[in-house]
Amino acid sequence: MDYVLVPHSHFHMKGFTIPEGIQTPSEIAHYAVQTFKEVVQTNLATGIAHPFDPCRFNEEEHRIFFKSISDEDFMACFALAKHIGCKFHFGSDTHSIEKLIRVEEEPYVIQKLGLTFVF
């Protein structure tokens, strides 16, 4: 394959992409950190779609999710992925043109983590 793009945050598929017992945004956040590291360590992924941006979460669920992940966990995840050459595709998994506007919000994250932004 030319590339393997992993949609890491499809946590709405209970029993398939997330175990049945993990339900709260906080539990999902901890599971996300664990599985992100596992995916990166396989060395199979050449890209991760919408990392740490769970599908179908409302605003309150997103707030709890992000509050549950420490800065240290985020830095460990993204530094690990950067170290092995994983690419982050901001906006590449959008399902509508209107949602591409979110790409404009990402340069801060990219700069903070020391990633290279390629158009």
Low-confidence parts: none
How would you spell out the order of helices and strands? Answer: EHEHHEH
Main sheet record: 3 strands, parallel
Number of discrete domains: 1
Please state how the strands of the largest beta sheet are arranged side by side: 1-2-3
Tell me the structural class. Answer: mainly alpha
Strand content: 5-15%
Instruction: Give the overall shape.
Output: globular
Cα(first) to Cα(last) distance is: 22 Å
Would you report the number of β strands?
Answer: 3
Description:
Helix content is 39%, strand content 8%. Helix 1 packs across helix 2 (59-67) and helix 1 (25-41) runs parallel beside helix 3. It has one domain. The chain is mainly α.
Based on the model shown, name its key terms.
mainly alpha, 119 residues, 3-stranded parallel beta sheet
Write a short abstract of this structure.
With 119 residues, the protein is mostly helical. The protein has helices at residues 25-41, 59-67, 71-83, 107-113, and strands at 5-7, 47-49, 87-89.
